[in-house]
Amino acid sequence: MAGQGQCPQGCCTGNEILCISIPCPISIVLLGISLQLELPCVRLTSQQVLTGTQAAQSVNALTGIIGAVGNILPTT
Length: 76
Known about the structure:
By secondary structure, the chain is an alpha+beta fold. It has one helix and two strands.
């Protein structure tokens, strides 16, 4: 466990297809709204070796999912 003012070590090991680790919250401003983003670990892995096409399909699907999050946010 990290002490006060310290962040825990990230979760990425380097052998993932995609890994996003932001172990400490970060402040962002989106459309003039101050937000705090907490994203300890998002990891995309496979138990088998993927072809280039399969990897591209996986990343495209993940990109679509992440893009859809913007549609969930209220527009008012």
